[in-house]
């Protein structure tokens, strides 16, 4: 399988790609995890690498016409409606993985994003670009 025209699906629906800054899309796939690693008296590291590997997906969200409160609501309501556990901000994510030129899926959570207001114009808020990161369970 190779790239099929989308970077990310959340709960089976393609993330609105007009908001993804393409050059910011970053995947750290299949990170190895250790269980109780230790360093012995000779300074040698002993690792017990577990089978489950965890990935992260990061990208910047922005809008070419000015990132407004309306755009923010579009993005956040898209995500909220696909949470499988709202308290944990858990989602099923399918993401393009350059490492294998294919798509991987898993359960991820969205840490609390930071929102930075750039300007206020009447009833319109303008935001700075926002970083989203999804971390696999």
Description:
The protein is 9% helix and 40% strand. With 137 residues, it is mainly beta. It has one domain: Elongation Factor Tu (Ef-tu), domain 3. The strands form three sheets. A seven-stranded antiparallel beta sheet has the order 2-1-7-8-11-6-3, with no helix packed on it. Strands 4-5 form a two-stranded antiparallel sheet. It has a two-stranded antiparallel sheet with strand order 9-10. The mean pLDDT is 92.
What structural category characterises the helix and strand content?
mainly beta
Helix content: under 10%
Tell me, rounded to a whole number, the average pLDDT. Answer: 92
Which second-level CATH architecture applies? Answer: Beta Barrel
Determine Rg (CA atoms, Å): 18 Å
Q: Cα distance, first to last residue?
A: 24 Å
- Give the assembly state of these chains: single chain
Q: How many independent structural domains? A: 1
Question: What is the CATH fold-level name?
Answer: Elongation Factor Tu (Ef-tu), domain 3
Q: How much strand?
A: 35-45%
CATH level 1 name:
Mainly Beta
Secondary-structure element sequence?
A: EEEEEEHEEEEE
Biggest sheet layout: 7 strands, antiparallel
Basic shape: elongated
Strand arrangement, largest sheet? Answer: 2-1-7-8-11-6-3
Low-confidence stretches: none
What is the overall number of helices? 1
E-strand count? 11
